[in-house]
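Lecture notes, continued. The same structure-token format from the folding unit now serves as the input rather than the output. Read the line below as a description of shape only.
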């Protein structure tokens, strides 16, 4: 079955919304997004989507659809289906470029007109803002809510956050149109609004274009390759995560074993110290006993010598002097 080329494919988007002879879809879509007077969009001038570089080495920007309104507002409308690194900064860079290229030498800054970017994304730009699919940015003081100027404005519309059911707004209908993936979805959404029905007819007509089909086929293959590569990368990352976890578990087991060995060694050290302490106590006690026994033996020998001296008739004072015993000890003999 031949692939259906959806409205959010950039070449299809440019064909449907960038046609200067069929500007009704573009004007209707912008009225659903922007808070600007209806009369300002009564006529739009589709202009060159290339943003001229200020210097030869500057990066040139290319947008999907660029137009000027009746009052001179400079509006860029673009679709970014695949997530892009630095996407938000690129939007700011392009918006600044739209503003900076308005004035030629000698013209006054008061002549600057509002530069507006409307970006439709096929990916989530602000994951922390669940349910909010439309974001509106201007230059202001965040603390006081004081606006510096309305010269720059960026609107970001996130298709993945679009509610499943109609919220009653024209913006929902247009974004639902841009998000369709099949002809059946296209036919259903075309019934909600006559201008959307005209845009749906254009989508059907360009789906018969061989060049359009081949361009989308190339993008579809690139997306599939990217999805496949990302899946392969995730598998490899999971394999590495599992291996890292296995290494972590083994390291933890080794750490636990080392800790057990350390605890056992500490217990053995404590036991060894306790054994040494007890042996030291035993030696001290033995030395004390030996010292006590020796002292008692000396005392006993002195008493025996003193007893013999007394029996031999030696005076008690002389016995005390010779044996070192006190007169009280000699009197007991």
């Amino acid at each position: 079955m031949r692939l259906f080329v959806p409205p959010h494919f950039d070449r299809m988007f440019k064909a449907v919304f960038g046609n200067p002879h069929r500007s009704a879809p573009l004007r209707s879509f912008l009225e659903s997004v922007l808070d600007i007077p209806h009369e300002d969009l009564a006529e739009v001038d589709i202009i060159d989507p290339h943003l001229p570089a200020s210097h030869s080495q500057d990066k040139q920007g290319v947008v999907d659809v660029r137009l000027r309104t009746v009052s001179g507002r400079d509006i860029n409308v673009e679709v970014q289906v695949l997530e892009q690194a630095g996407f938000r900064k690129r939007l700011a860079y392009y918006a600044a470029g739209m503003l900076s290229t308005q004035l030629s030498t000698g013209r006054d800054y008061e002549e600057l007109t509002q530069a507006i970017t409307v970006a439709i994304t096929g990916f989530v730009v602000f994951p922390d803002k669940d349910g909010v699919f439309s974001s509106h940015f201007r230059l202001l003081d965040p603390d006081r809510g004081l606006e510096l100027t309305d010269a720059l404005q960026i609107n970001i519309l996130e298709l993945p956050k679009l509610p499943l059911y109609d919220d009653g707004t024209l913006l929902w209908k247009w974004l639902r149109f841009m998000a369709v993936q099949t002809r059946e979805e296209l036919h259903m959404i075309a019934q909600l609004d006559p201008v959307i029905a005209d845009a749906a007819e254009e989508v059907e007509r360009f789906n018969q274009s061989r060049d359009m089909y081949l361009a989308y086929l190339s993008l579809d293959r690139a997306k599939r390759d990217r999805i496949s590569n990302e899946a392969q990368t995730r598998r490899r990352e999971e394999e590495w995560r599992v291996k890292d976890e296995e290494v972590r578990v083994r390291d933890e087991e080794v750490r636990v074993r080392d800790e057990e060995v350390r605890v056992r060694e500490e217990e053995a050290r404590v036991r060894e110290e306790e054994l040494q302490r007890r042996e030291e106590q035993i030696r001290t006690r033995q030395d004390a006993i030996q010292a006590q026994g020796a002292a008692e033996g000396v005392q006993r020998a002195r008493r025996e010598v003193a007893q013999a001296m007394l029996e031999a008739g030696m005076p008690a004072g002389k016995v005390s002097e010779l044996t070192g015993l006190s007169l009280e000890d000699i009197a007991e003999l």
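Point for the exam: Residues 51-62 have pLDDT under 50 and may be disordered.
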